[in-house]
Design goal:
The chain has helices at residues 2-15, 22-33, 39-81, 84-90, 95-123, 127-130, 135-153, 163-189, 195-207, 212-236, 248-273, 295-305, 357-365, 386-391, 408-418, 423-436, 452-464, 482-497, 509-515, 533-540, 556-566, 591-601, 617-625, 646-655, and strands spanning 314-325, 329-341, 346-350, 372-377, 380-381, 393-396, 470-474, 501-505, 518-523, 526-531, 544-550, 571-576, 579-584, 607-614, 674-675, 684-685. By secondary structure, it is an alpha/beta fold. Among the domains are: 52-273, no CATH class; 543-614 and 662-689, 2-Layer Sandwich (Alpha-Beta Plaits).
Length: 689
């Protein structure tokens, strides 16, 4: 029987030598207890008992070291989801430097738990790992494990949006791969007498070399096994057969594999950063005029396409963005946008949510890839010279991309260094930004404790650092109180006076009227109107608003009869006690005629005062907002035609867009006329359909 034979051979060898080492003595004791079992089971039990402790130690180390590299990705995912990472790139940080700095910092953090593991091995006095011969190999395994596993974790940060999800996923993957691969190869070693299983085990050992977790665990096990063999040969005096732990089959093969994996992992991370592995699809965009373009929009398109906007701070040439949706197919978010922003101009980009404003900003700053078209900032292409583009712009994103644990001063110091401001000028620039945005009172408080308005101030201050020639402000005054809002308006006006350009989005028409020299209203990813504020009011306004206040309520009915006789096309908008408001179409009657008729009856009708005003920008905006389609079906591509590629479907969409439907969620059906029979006329509304 195999078990008896193995026991007799070992006893015979040891009877002619010195006392057996404790590992071999234990092997003999176990053999005596298992000699009654069938051969294969007895041999398996002997091997497991010999290396069982070492397998458990290796597995425990794998488990402990699986949590550490996974934790490095948490902060990276958080930076990506809050756009803090993108804001650093916009501020001039080179992507390679960004990842290299993360790599160095994470390796320094990794050394802390790795040192603790080594100390524990010394505390428990395990000669297989702490002897003078084996300790350098153990140290090499731990160092190269951190070197290799850290950059391998980085690409996962591009696929996750929630930090906790990424953390749990990577822990599970590390545990599964490390434990499964290590235990599988160990168990297959017990059946090396089977040629097929031995060949499979050899193949698996070579394949598993791509996993640093396996290299760490397997290397520790091989060192422990080698220590047992060396101890045995030392006892019988055959020192020439003792092996160094740095033999190729013991540790060195894994060390070489982990060294290569570190470089490969970092290279893959850089390739992912530049989207080298997943190139976004590009499609040609027609330069032909669009039939349903507004006159002003078509004029701007011709100006851009014929090259008259080449010297502008910002030139947008047929910029297009198509999103893929699992349910809706392809959604056209930005449709052949053409625009030029001149030096010293503040351009307002208006539109309801889903119109494409933020998507346009993301493409111009490099946060999103473009599907078609091109844009130039200071003559640099966003496709070919993105790093040069980002170094010349300032960007305040829609949501604050701040670090909650950093103070206002630390934020500004970080971005002044990214902008390349000389060290001797940094303190002066930081102090200027703090005073300019009125953040001196909160300079040393963490940003996580700031109010929404102060966070927007800090985000705006970051956008102004480095004196960029073009500044993108995505709803910069959201959450600000009126005083802070007015203060920021004055700051933006000062920026424009210096010759720099500003492009901003806002839902406040008052803000646009105070700041913008020109604005455009986007609907379904396209400009529906373009020009100065007064030009848009004249072209798309609803005429005049006439507000009349009588001396007593008894004069109200006379005024109503006067308007019905002299201005039959006027629409009653409001009636409240002695106040009446009418809307009058400007194309029906001139402003001079309105004043002439009103002045004739001021005394007769007992009118205390009246005013005639032009319709506001809000009315113009609401009229265009009615044309905005729902975000989910605004530009849905029609069902695919058999044999037609997705690119062909997108091109067909650009050639003939479906007419947009009204967005009922934004502009509901006009309310029915509400009138009171009471003589006082408390409420009376009539909306013109």
């Amino acid at each position: 029987m195999a078990c008896h034979l193995l026991h007799n051979v070992l006893s015979g060898v040891l009877s002619r030598s010195e006392p057996a080492p404790r590992g071999i003595q234990e092997l003999l004791r176990v053999g005596e207890r298992t000699a009654g079992f069938p051969g294969p089971l007895g041999i398996g039990t002997l091997a497991i008992r010999l290396q069982g402790t070492d397998v458990v130690i290796a597995i425990f180390i794998i488990v402990a070291m699986s949590f550490v590299p996974a934790s490095f990705v948490v902060f990276l995912v958080a930076e990506k989801s809050t756009k803090a990472k993108h804001l650093q790139f916009v501020s001039g940080c080179d992507p390679v430097i960004y990842w290299l700095a993360n790599y160095i910092w994470d390796m320094l953090n990794y050394l802390v738990p790795a040192t603790c593991c080594v100390i524990i091995l010394f505390v428990f006095d395990l000669p297989a790992y702490t002897s003078p011969t084996n300790f350098p190999a153990v140290l090499s395994l731990f160092l190269l494990y951190g070197w290799s596993i850290t950059p391998i974790m980085y690409p996962a940060s591009f696929w996750f949006e929630v930090p906790s999800t990424a953390y749990v996923f990577l822990i599970v993957i590390n545990l599964f791969i490390g434990i499964t691969a290590t235990v599988a190869t160990f168990l297959l070693q017990l059946f090396e007498h089977d040629k097929d299983l031995k060949r499979i085990n050899s193949y698996l050992k070579s394949c598993f070399l791509i996993f640093p977790n396996y290299n760490l665990g397997h290397g520790l096990m091989e060192m422990a096994y080698n220590e047992y063999i060396n101890e045995y040969y030392a006892k019988i005096g055959q020192f020439d057969k003792m092996k160094s732990p740095f033999e190729w089959d013991i540790v060195t093969r894994g060390l070489v594999a982990m060294t290569i994996e570190g470089f490969v992992g970092f290279l893959i991370t850089i390739l992912c950063q530049y989207n080298f592995l997943r190139k976004p699809p590009r499609m040609p965009v027609s330069c032909q005029p669009i039939d349903d373009d507004d006159v002003d929009v078509a004029c701007e398109r011709r100006r851009v396409l014929r090259g008259d906007a080449d010297n502008d701070k910002l030139k947008i040439d047929n910029l297009t963005k198509v999103y893929k949706s699992r349910k809706m197919g392809h959604i056209l978010a930005v449709d052949r946008l053409c625009l030029g922003v001149r030096p010293g101009e503040c351009f307002g980009l208006l539109g309801v949510n889903g119109a494409g404003k933020t998507t346009t900003f993301k493409m111009l700053t490099g946060d999103e890839s473009t599907t078609g078209g091109e844009a130039f900032i200071n003559g640099n292409s966003i496709l070919k010279d993105l790093l040069c583009v980002q170094q010349s712009i300032g960007y305040c994103p829609q949501f604050d991309a701040l670090f909650d644990d950093l103070t206002a001063r630390e934020h500004l110091e970080l971005y002044t260094r990214l902008r390349g401001i000389p060290w001797k000028d940094q303190e002066r620039v930081v102090q200027w930004a703090l005073e300019k945005l009125e953040l001196s009172k909160y300079v040393d408080k963490p940003a996580g404790t700031y109010s929404g308005g102060n966070k927007r101030k800090l985000s705006t201050a970051i956008a102004l650092i480095g004196y960029p020639s073009l500044i993108f402000l995505d709803e910069p005054t959201t959450g600000m109180d009126p005083k802070a809002r007015r203060f920021l308006w004055n700051l933006i006006l000062d920026i424009i006076k210096t010759g720099r350009s500003v492009v901003l989005t806002s839902h406040s028409m008052e803000e646009c009227e105070a700041l913008c020299t020109r604005l455009g209203i986007m609907v379904n990813g396209r400009f529906k109107c373009l020009g100065s504020i007064q030009h848009l009011k004249n072209r798309f306004g609803d005429g005049y608003m006439i507000t009349v206040r009588t001396k007593s309520s008894s004069n109200v009915k006379e005024v109503l009869r006067f308007f019905n006789r002299n201005f039959p096309e006027a629409v009653l908008k409001e009636r409240h006690h002695t106040k009446i408001q009418y809307q009058l179409k400007s194309e029906r009657i001139s402003l001079a005629q309105v004043f002439s008729k009103m002045e004739q009856v001021v005394e007769v009708l007992g009118i205390e005062d009246y005013s005639v005003s032009q319709t506001t920008l809000d009315n113009v905006f609401v009229n265009f907002a009615k044309k905005q389609s729902d975000n989910l079906d605004q530009q849905e591509v029609s069902p695919p035609v058999p044999g037609q590629s997705p690119l062909q479907r997108i091109l067909n969409l650009l050639k003939s867009r479906p007419a947009p439907t009204e967005l009922s969620a934004l502009i509901s059906e006009e309310p029915a006329e509400l009138e009171s029979d009471d003589d006082e006329g408390l409420i009376s509304f009539e909306e013109e359909r």
